[in-house]
Structure formats: structure tokens, C-alpha cells
Amino acid sequence: MDSSEYDLPFFHRAGFHRRACSVCGSAFWTLGDHDRCQEAPCRDYGFLGHPGFSKPEGPDAMRETFLHFFEERGHTRVRRYPTVARWRNDVFFTQASIYDFQPWVTSGAIPPPANPLVISQPVLRFIDLEEVGRSGRHFTLFEMMAHHAFNRPDHEVYFKDRTTELCHELLTEQLGADPTAITYKEEVWEGGGNLGPSLSVGLLGLEVATLVFMEYVRDVDAVRPMPLTVVDTGYGLERFTWMSQGTKTAYEAVFGAEYDELRRTFPPREAAILIDHARALNFLLTDGVVPSNSKEGYFARLLLRRSIRILQRTPEAPDLLAILDAAGRAIARTFPEVGAHRDDLHRVVSAEAEKFAESIDRARTTIRRYDERLRATGGKVTEEDLLQWYDSLGIPPDLAVEELREPPKIPDDFYSRVAARHEGERPTNEYTETTKGLPDVATGTPATEVLYYLDPYTLAFDAHVVWTEGPYVVLDRTYFYPTGGGQVTDKGHLGDLAVVDVERKGPWVLHHLERPSPFRVGERVHGRVDGPRRRQLMQHHTATHLLNGALRETLGPHVWQAGAYKGPESARIDITHYKPLSREELHRVERRVNEIVREDRPVKSYFEDRNQAEKRFGFTLYQGGAVPGKELRIVEVEGFDVEACGGTHCTHTSEVGAIALSDVERIQDGIVRLTYSSGERALDLREEHEEILKEASRRLGVSVAELPSGIDRLLGEIEASRKAARTRRKEDLGATASRLLADPSVAETVGATMIVTGAVDRGRAELMELSRLLTKEKGRVAILAGEEDGRGVLFVGSTSPAVAAADVLRAALGEFEGRGGGNPASATAVGEPGAPLAHALDAARSAARRAAGA
RNA sequence: GGGCACGUAGAUCAGCGGAAGAUCGCUGCUUUCGCAAAGCAGAGGUCGGGGGUUCAAAUCCCCCCGUGUCCA
Asked: For strand B, is any atom closer than 7 Å to the CB of A419?
């Protein structure tokens, strides 16, 4: 990055000078006389015991100070976004305030909710998990305070100069930091294909803020300026609070009384971990994460299980729920939604605690058994075993050590060795462009006016072609709904040509025709949307909202939509839930949702200012994933369910007709999928099921009502006949056995051994059974010849200690080109097709006689 | 999303190429006025499903399904 990028007029106006850090070598700007930048590790903390700000403040006051400062300077305050970044598929969590506005706002597709804006966004960074409680300043969840400005060529808000000036004014005039104590270090920021200069703000050894200026796009071969530049700042609320108080660690300053309370029972590190995790969990669970074994759920599980282990190791430890509640109450002062559903949160946490207890129980028996076996063989449990147990069974190493008689030492680098085991695994979580494969629409093409939003019933319309290429057509206005929000595309016709697909790209709707477009730009075309298809899609979409509402009502507010699909045949919704749905719960959901259908409630779709809508309806609006615009399209089922949604909906619930659940499955830990249909399809489905029932009852010859008992009877009969067949075969074999034993030409006694030699017309499995019967008593040898698939089979069974079956068999192999083997108790061989067994039997008998000591 | 482990009797698991096992639970008998307990006897298994290798597969290989767990 060219050094002129950092040469701001503000620095010159205010009298800054540029230096190079004698430790890290980076260039920085300062008013003071520093030979190094004022951040760790280049210098030590200088504020412990000597706060760097003039007034000590807790996090609530500090946040308010920050937000208010920027509000007074023309910024609009924006509420936090969820900590789970459902609107992105490349990350699980909101890891910075700018994530709220990626990709749509930063790409220019959608205007920001306000410009400039100020926000305090709770963000999660699991990278720092191991550092929590150790460094004194790391958190898994922290609040990133930020002011953002989005500059378009025609509308410049502010950029580097003003940003830096605001930051400096905040630190010095508002918070009372010594102006000469601050350094602005020059850095380069790069991420998501964008890059730009950034300034890292150091004060008394602490990096308190980063000012990032997204300015360029990195292409394959070059760096180009972005059409839209973005001011992306990040001020750590926790660090500001800490700076203002100068306590020993950030935890004391940030968590105050809750931390002190835990310190009465726990050492500093454990106390910090517990309160940090409790805070992160409150946000995660409130925002709809259910603990599970993959994706975002795993992080919730990790935090919970880490906390539980600490509590288990500590005598007289407080209850986990009590710690969560204390943290939750503190958060709720600012974010009331976090405190709103304690009971439900308790249920989710308790369910997870139970699962963990079960897992630990299993672990204990596994370890004990393994230990015993090893002790019997003189082996010892190794470090490698500990790693393997943790990785594949989830056994914490400290727990394993508790259970073992001679435990190995837990290696200091245990967790990095676990990580090493996972090296080379390539997660495929790349951000996938949904508009991939679509052609680029010429810049300057007017945006498509989308008419389906407010009027889903009009299906025929006239419009003008504003752009076209190959089979793609963009119109100035359209009623065609493009694939999106889980609802599949409309179909229909433009003129005489079929529309096979409709997709949205930025501000345009692209109609994909069956053939290259014959239309010219400016031409007027007539559009017709396939009515029955659209109607079914609408019914399925509205049904999805109703079901989501009914599920939340029935199962609890931890239920969030984790995915959905609305097709013309059926629809499905994936919800977060911590256990399988019982039949009774399903029944209740289905009844409730159809009750709502019958009540014929109005379904209203309208646009509303984002902040206002959030205030009225809360965070659960974002079931399908937040669209970060200034205005939200709200779909409101009166008195029942409200969601931000771009889909086409019925205007009254009765239009949905009926909702029939057809399938429920657990698609992954913590996620349940319900499949259903509504309207015509629901009726079709019911008819189909009825037909199946009738057909089944006809075939079984009983009434529909008697089907279950009829099936039971049938199953009973099958079982009985199977048993009878088995008994008959046994009797048969028993008779054969008696016959053989009674025949002096086949049964002979040699010393203490009785040898039975015979040929029967049976296969391998039956020879074995027969041998079993013949050698029930000790000291017997059975040599049996049979046939299977045209090949001779020779079976030898022995309960005589003197006669080894395998030896006997081996002596006979050559006589019938047999291949096989066995052990002292039993041996089998199969010969080539057509090879006679007579000689083999003789050979085997001779061998058995010899072994028996004749 | 990926790695690893695990699916065997109603339950918990052992067996890891040669004749499907243990413990608890269940049924019956003995003992008892009866119960518990004990002893004896017995029932209960397509060894998750499907392919392959082999004379022979619960066991080895491949694919699927399910569960657990770790990592992102």
C-alpha cells in the first residue's frame, strides 16, 4: 500500500508526525514523542492501575457514550444483528460489525439501513477460545462498536480523513485520553476479495480500535478501485471499558459483580471462562442456536461442555443455570430479547447437559473396560489413546485420567495435537455466489420494478424489455417471482416463449427463456405467469410461515427456521430443536396450524423501516436470514407469526386450504425437518393415503379400522410358521442323527472316541447342524459328506480332545480336490464340481481312527 | 462441511476369518403360607442394510443408512 494512502490532511492539521516503530518497524502517526507504536507487544500495558480515560465506566455506560457521541455527529443508531450470520453461507457467526452488511450492502445491491451509521455488534471469535481467562483480554464474544459509512461516486459521506478525526475526538475530547499517548499505526487490511489501508489505534499498550478503509478490489491480475468505498471501523467495547477502569484484567471491568461472585468459588481463569461462556451462550441460544455436533451448534456445545467440566471439578460449584441467568440478566439491560425466554433456554441447556452426562457415562465404561483388558495383557494406556478417545469418543483427557489406574500424563500440547490430527482436512465452506453462471447485465440498465411483492394475484402484465442477451431478458417491471427465500421460480410465458427459470441478480430480475430471446430492447412484451403453479407455491410459502409459528408456539422459542424449501409438489422446513418430535407434539402442531388456517386470519405483506419493525416484532423476524436493507418486507399473519420475507403469500390463511404433514426426520443433530403439503396437494396427499389404506385393507380382507390388529395377526402367523419350519428341520435332522448313530456301519467306537461317518443329501449349513447333534456328547467325531450347488461338501466336527477336526479334513482334501480348513472343533471343505466324495470319506475316517488311537 | 469411532439377544457389551457368547432382564421348574433371594432349565439373534473378496465373513474391502464424537 502506497504511503500516501495514510498521509491524511487531519494528521497535518492536528500536528501529527510520522515515525517508524523501533520494535515492529511499522510506520505510525502520533502527537507524542514515541519511538515505538503504543500497542502490545511493542510496549507494556501502561493503564493498569492508571486508567487511560478520565472516567471509569461499565460496559453499558461506555456503549452509550460511544453510540451517543456518533449520534451527535450525524450517525444513525442501528440495533445489533443476530450473532448467527444466517444471511451468509461462508461463515457461521457474525465476526465483525461489517458482516452485518456483507455482501449486499458492501456490494451496492442494497442500500444500508442508515448512512452513516453507528452500532455496537456482539461478535464471536472462537479463535480466541483457549486465550480466554489466560491473556486477561480475550473473549469468545465481545461487542464491536463501530461507525460505518458507505460512499458511492454520487454520494460521498466521509472517508479516511473524517473517520480518523472522529476517532481521535472520541478518544481525547470525549473520553479524556492523553492526545500524545495515541498512535495510529499504518497497516493493510484484506479480506473477501477487497483490500485497503487501515489504521490500528494504540493507547498505553492496548489496541483499542482499528479503522479500515475498503477501497480496492483484488482481481486475478490487478488491484482496481471499488465503485463503492466503505468505512469499516471496530472499537472494542471491552477494551474501552477496561481502559477506563485500569483493572488487572478486562474481565473485572467488563463483568463486574458477576465476575466477583464467581471468584469467591473459582480461581481467576475458571471464573473468567465461566462468565465469558455464559455471556456467549446467552446470545447464541437467544439467536436460535441449539447445541449439536456440527456447524454453529457445535460451538454452543463446546462452550456448554467446557463450562460443565469446570463446574464438575469444583466442589460446591454453583448451578450452571444460575450462572447463565446472572449473565443473561446483565445482558438484558441492553438487549432485552436475551432475557426474554429463560424457561426455554433452561430446557435447551438441561437437555444438552443430560446428553453430556450420558456421553460421560459411556466414556467411563469404555475407559474402564479398556483399562482392565490392558491390565490383563500387561499393556499401558498411552498419550495416543487419550488423543484417540477425545477425538472419537469425546472423552475429556482429565476425565480419562481420573478413571485410569495408571494414567499417562496429559501432554501440555494436548489440544494442539488434537488439531494436528485434523490437519489436511479441507472444509468446503466457500462462499457460493447464487448468481453464478448468470450473464452480467449492462451497467446503466434500469432496475426491475418487482410487482409480485405487493400484489401476488396479478398474473398477466405488459412490460418493456430493457436488456437482453441470449435466452435472458430483463424487463422494466415484472410479476414473475425469481428463485429466492426457499421459494422456487415462477414459470409462464413472455409473448409466445416459455419462461423456464427466473433469477434475481442485484437490482434486476432475469427471465430465462426456452430459446434465445427474439425481443429487442424497448419492445413491449406481454407476460403471463403460470397460475396454478404460482398458487401452489404461495400456499406452500404461507403454510411454511404458519407451521413455523405453530412450532415455536408448541415447542418453544428456541425453534428457529434453519432452512426451507417451497416447491410445487411439497414443502419442507428445517427447524432447530434438541430432540425428536413426539407423535403427540406433531399431532398438536398439525391441529394448531390447521386451526389457524380455518380461522381465516389476514396475512399482510408490507414494507417497513427496519428499526421500527425490529422494535415492534423483535428478532424472530429473521427466520429466513436477515436482509440488511433500510426497509424490510414484512409478512404478518395477524396475531400469530411475523417474518421478514420476500416471497409471494396468500392474503388470508384460509387460502392455504389445509396443511398435511407427510414426514418428519432428524436431518442432523439439533435440526428436525418437516415435510408437508398444502392446498390441492394436501388434499391429493390425503386421498392418496386413503387409497393406500383401502387397498391394504382389501388385500388383508379386514376393514380399515382393523388394519393394525390385522397386521399384528399376520406378523404373528409369519413368525409362527417360521418357527414351525425351524422345528421341523430340527426334528428332521434329529431323526437323521439318530439313524446314523444307530447304524453300526457308520458309528464306530475307537478307544474313548465315537466316530460317525456318513453321507447325507444336505448343504453346508445343515451338515454343521447335524454335526452339532451328533457330537453333543464329549468324545465324538462327526465326518459328514453332503452336497451344495453341485459341489461336494465335507464337514468334520469333533468334541474329542484327541481328534482335531482340521487335521482329519486335511487328510481327505486330496481325494476330492477340496479346498478348506478349520480348527480342532470344526472344519469344512468344498470340492470341485463332480468330484466324488467316497474316497474322501474313507480317508477322513482313517485319519480320525489314527488320531483316536486305534 | 470434513476426520475418527461405533451399530451383535429386551438392556449393557464381549467376540474381530473357521460350529453366534457373557451379564442383567424375561419365562418355567425347585424351595416358600406368600414375596424376595438362591439353584436348575428354557425362550429370545436375517450380528444396521446392500454389494464384493474367500472353500468359509459378525469378523476383511466398497457403498448406503443410523448413532456418537472431534475439527472448521
From this structure: yes
CA distance A44 to A178: 17
**Helices and strands in chain A: count of H runs, count of E runs:** 21, 30
> What DSSP character marks residue A182?
E
- Cis-peptide, bond into residue A318, ω within 30° of zero: no
Identify residue A632 by its one-letter amino acid code: L
- Whether domain A746-852 has CATH 3.10.310.40: yes
Tell me the DSSP string of A541-607. Answer: HHHHHHHHHHHHHHH-TT--EEEEEE-SS-EEEEEE-SSPPPHHHHHHHHHHHHHHHHTT-BEEEEE
Is A320's CB less than 7 Å from nucleic acid strand B? no
C-beta atoms surrounding A55 within 10 Å: 12
Chain B bases near protein CB atoms (7 A cut-off): 1-5, 12-15, 18-20, 44, 54-56, 66-72
SS3 A678: strand
pLDDT tens profile A184-195: 999 999 887 789
CA of A390 to C1' of B15 (A): 25
Q: Which of residues 87-146 of A touch strand B (CB under 7 A)?
A: 126
pLDDT tens by residue, A604-645 = 999 998 878 888 998 788 887 666 677 889 999 999 999 999
What the block records as the C-alpha cell of A8 is 491524511
ipTM: 0.89
CATH architecture of A449-529: Beta Barrel (2.40)
In DSSP terms, which residues pair with A724 in a beta bridge? Answer: none
Please give the C-alpha separations between residue A645 and each of A85, A623, A641, in angstroms, as whole numbers.
Answer: 16, 8, 12
CATH architecture of structural domain A3-248: 2-Layer Sandwich (3.30)
Write out the H or E segment, with its range, that includes residue A80.
Answer: none
- Please state, in angstroms and rounded to a whole number, the distance separating the CA atoms of residues A84 and A398: 31
